Amino acid sequence: MTRLETLVKNLGAVLGGRLAGTTVARGEVTIVVPAGEHLEVARALRDHAGLRFEQLIDLAGVDYLDFGNGSWEGRRFAVVMHLLSVAHNWRLRVRTFCPDDELPIVASVTPIWSAAGWFEREAFDLYGIVFEGHEDLRRILTDYGFVGHPFRKDFPVSGHVEMRYDPEQRRVVYQPVTIEPREVVPRVIREEGYGQGR
């Protein structure tokens, strides 16, 4: 039995019905966990001797709006965690879909892995995903007065407001975006036989 097969077997034995799906692709295991089980599954992944995922490597938000050229029929927002077990030398991707597209909420995993704190703040700032139980959920990359969540697929490319330094007021001021939207069609020029060996 390979290491990946052992990991999949252990995940099934420990998590059982709490798994909404398991896939193995390109040498990586991904599990899908229902939002209501997110925190308890995280605790089991860290604490169970057969799994021992001691480290949270990364946590990010994902917006599935228009995924697959509009063929996606699932929930819009997901939280994806990448975990590492130093004890067993294996990795795992955990995907949890937020049950409400209008107000995406999922439990914070900061009680399990304290490193999640800044990652969750980033997902909140950029995607608007609320992490229930996070003790300091506030913006981390955008300005405190920023409107919206810039990594959402429906966020305008130019944004809503721009800021500039006003020398008369001697401070930074916000104003509506002054960029005119335009569509640029790239012009491609290639000589005949381009890319073919000569």
Q: Tags for this entry?
A:
198 residues; alpha/beta; Beta Polymerase, domain 2; two-stranded parallel sheet; 3 helices; 9 strands
Walkthrough of the structure:
- The longest helix has 13 residues, at 3-15.
- Strand 4 (77-85) and strand 5 (90-97) form a beta hairpin.
- This protein has a 5-stranded mixed β-sheet. Strands 6-7 form a two-stranded parallel ribbon.
- The mean pLDDT is 90.
- It is an alpha/beta fold and 198 residues long.
- The protein has a single domain, classed as Beta Polymerase, domain 2 (2-Layer Sandwich).
- It is 18% helix and 27% strand.
- The chain is built from 3 helices and 9 strands, in the order αββαββββαβββ.
List the helices and strands and how they pair.
Blueprint: H1 3-15, E1 21-25, E2 28-32, H2 38-47, E3 55-63, E4 77-85, E5 90-97, E6 105-107, H3 116-127, E7 130-132, E8 161-166, E9 171-176
Parallel strand pairs: 2-5, 6-7
Antiparallel strand pairs: 1-2, 3-4, 4-5, 8-9
Mean pLDDT: 90
Beta-sheet strand percentage?
25-35%
List the domain count as a whole number: 1
**Number of DSSP E strands:** 9
Can you summarize the main beta sheet?
5 strands, mixed
